[in-house]
Design a protein that fits this description.
It is built from seven helices and four strands. It has helices at 11-15, 21-31, 43-50, 56-68, 73-90, 94-105, 121-128, and strands spanning 5-10, 109-113, 138-142, 150-153. A hairpin with a 7-residue loop joins strand 3 and strand 4. It is globular and about 55 Å long. Residues 132-139 and 141-166 have low confidence and may be disordered.
Length: 166
């Protein structure tokens, strides 16, 4: 029987060439120009961040609220699908795609981790065929450029991957 691995990939700046949240928001607003003014109120949370309020999660959350707040789910979902496809076509490192493909050929379990909100990450997970199930004897952690990717036994990872219980 084949031994499956668990391969965990980080999104922004690891498998992608850049951060993904701001291009996602900018792309949506560009396609909905009557909402472009919503960038202006983002200056205040950005200034607070620069002045010492260093909570990136809070900053991202506030920018999402200010720019995308009140948008119906249908146009946001449509843009998320387009954006995810575009990311795969043009913004992922070739080495990362090769590594993902190799793990898929090996029938390994792939997980995509991201601090980005679940606006477009689920679409990206679907395109890359990233799943969340199974039990795995080894962990392949992809959290940097290919020269720093490592594989290690799961027992060395604190809080090893487990299936969510119903």
């Amino acid at each position: 029987m084949h031994e499956r691995n668990l391969a965990i990939f980080d999104l922004d700046g690891t498998i992608t060439r850049h951060d993904t949240l701001l291009p996602f928001i900018a792309g949506f607003l560009w396609r909905h120009p009557w909402r472009l003014w919503r960038w202006l109120p983002c200056l205040l949370p950005l200034l607070r961040y620069v002045a010492g309020a260093r909570d990136r999660g809070a900053l991202k959350s506030r920018i999402i609220q200010l720019t995308l707040g009140g948008v119906a789910s249908a146009p946001l979902t449509a843009w998320a699908v387009r954006f995810a496809r575009r990311l795969v076509r043009s913004s992922l490192y070739a080495e990362a795609l090769e590594c993902i493909t190799a793990h898929q050929r090996n029938h390994d379990h792939l997980v995509l981790l991201s601090a980005s909100p679940n606006l477009y990450v689920p679409g990206l997970q679907a395109i890359l065929r990233v799943r969340k199930s199974g039990s795995f004897p080894r962990l392949c952690l992809h959290a940097a450029l290919p020269s720093r990717w490592i594989a290690m036994p799961v027992r060395h990872v604190e809080g090893s991957y487990r299936e969510p219980r119903p």
